[in-house]
Write a structure and sequence with these properties.
By secondary structure, this protein is of the alpha+beta class. The protein is 22% helix and 25% strand. The chain is elongated. InterPro entries: Cytosolic_carboxypeptidase, Pepdidase_M14_N, Peptidase_M14.
């Protein structure tokens, strides 16, 4: 069950500063660890746990390892516990979360799985408490009690379902095989290498046969995982790619008319070492689009140059740039867009969120926002709406770390890996409706239902 395998082209530095098979012994105990002396480990890809203190026989204070070179980011955690005793009960306090306002204030709880139960489950809310602790200098503390019911199991705890760089590489290799029937309409290539020499993949799907024709081919760019701790975005992107290369009628008609350029992981280094928000050198890449350089920000710089090239292309018309993120304090999926003085551009800009709202059962209209916030000038959404031409719609798609409400209901349904993937399908439906609305893809007339006589 342990995820301790480095990717094939890694440098073996996963888990820098993370605990490595750290056994917590009671005071005065030495020698071989006994059952019940918990062993904590986060020295694997996407792992994060920097320190454990024993408070008493049953209680442990856990410290998230801050992002590399950026100590203020502390939210993502992912670690394993083993060497447990049958029916041993413990209290874990995660004591150094840097975000006071987040979904743990509401109904969100940590995830857990174990060796023989490989499906992630939320710890029941009655065992989880998020509170200000005076014994921890007034910091917010996430406390949860847990009972280890099987002695020989390895238990894994995480803030959200992890999605590693290695997992992405495996998925893309499988996807290439599945997409072999698309021939020249599917292409996988490396657009850039990271500071630690991991590759950033670009997937190009659809409409290759009509590039260079009399009309410009419509193009959509989708990016994910610029913030490494936002693992739900990888599931959304995987769902989008799976439907896009399938024989589904929706995918087929989109591929015939639109080129999709997908960048599924913009920050592989940060993902690999278990950072929450930064790359390996401590930079928040989604505050750096307006200052990107080949040396400090090679991944987003390469994508920015490619997007500018597409925007100026004689063969392609770039319609969308969608940057997918996970939200730590709001539920549902929703769009952040821009505001414009040009009324016609703004009216065109608000069309796609309306269409997505109609196609996605988890869409949260109340969280949708359009602004020109100068504090966000370094984000992809804000910078690209200025750096690219007025034809391009630049959005952030947010999806909650926790769950969503069905329309006309206040009950929150926790997201799963599968329901995150469904967000990718919702995106595809909204793209089809958009291109129907603007006349790029004709609406197929519905054949009349024959009468009984005609039958």
């Amino acid at each position: 069950m342990k995820q301790m395998i480095d990717s094939d082209d890694s440098d073996g530095e996963s888990g820098m500063g993370n605990l490595n098979r750290f056994i917590v012994r009671p005071p005065g105990h030495s020698g071989k660890a006994k059952k019940g002396h918990l062993c904590f480990d986060a020295s694997f890809e996407t792992g994060n746990l920097g320190r454990v203190d024993l408070v008493n026989e049953y209680e442990y204070d856990l410290y998230i390892r801050p992002d590399t070179c950026s100590p203020r980011f502390r939210f993502w955690f992912n670690f394993t516990v083993d060497n447990v005793k049958q029916d041993q009960r413990v209290i874990f306090n995660i004591v150094n979360i840097n975000k006071g306002r987040n979904l743990f204030n509401g109904q969100m709880t940590p995830l857990v799985k174990s060796t023989t139960r490989s499906k992630w489950q939320r710890i029941p809310k009655e065992y989880v408490f998020y509170h200000k602790s005076f014994s921890h200098h007034g910091h917010y503390v996430l406390s949860f009690s847990f009972g280890f019911d099987k002695e020989d199991e390895v238990f894994q705890f995480a803030m959200a379902p992890p999605y590693s760089y290695s997992r992405l590489q495996t998925f893309l290799s499988v996807l290439e095989s599945k997409a072999s029937h698309l021939k020249e309409n599917f292409k996988r290539e490396t657009i850039a290498n990271t500071l630690q020499n991991r590759k950033v993949d670009q997937l190009t799907v659809g409409a290759a046969n009509i590039i260079g024709g009399s009309k410009k081919i419509r193009t959509v760019a989708v990016m994910a995982r610029v913030h490494p701790g936002e693992s739900p975005t990888s599931f959304v992107c995987q769902g989008l790619l799976e439907i896009l290369v399938s024989s589904n009628a929706l995918a087929t008609i989109l591929r015939e008319n639109v080129v999709f350029r997908i960048f599924p992981m913009l920050n592989p280094d940060g993902v690999f070492v278990g950072n929450y928000r930064s790359n390996i050198s401590g930079l928040d890449l989604n505050r750096s689009w307006n200052m990107a350089t080949p040396f400090s920000h090679p991944t987003i710089h390469a994508i920015l140059e490619m997007l500018k090239s597409l925007d100026n292309s004689e063969n392609e018309q770039l319609d969308f740039v969608i940057d997918i993120h996970a939200h730590s304090s709001l539920n549902g999926c929703f769009i952040y867009g821009n505001t414009y003085e040009d009324v016609y551009r703004y009216e065109r800009h608000i069309l796609f969120p309306k269409l997505l709202s109609a196609s996605a059962i988890d869409y949260a209209k109340e969280n949708t926002m359009f602004n020109a916030d100068t504090l966000k000038n370094g984000t992809a959404r804000r910078y690209l709406c200025c750096a690219l031409s007025s034809k391009v719609n630049s959005y952030t798609l947010e999806v909650s770390f926790h769950g969503y409400k069905l329309k006309e209901s206040d009950f929150i349904i926790p997201y799963t890996e599968e329901s995150y993937k469904r967000c990718g399908l919702s995106l595809m439906k909204a793209f089809l409706e958009y291109y129907h609305c603007i006349g790029v893809i004709p609406i197929q007339p519905v054949k009349e239902i024959p009468t009984k006589r005609e039958k």
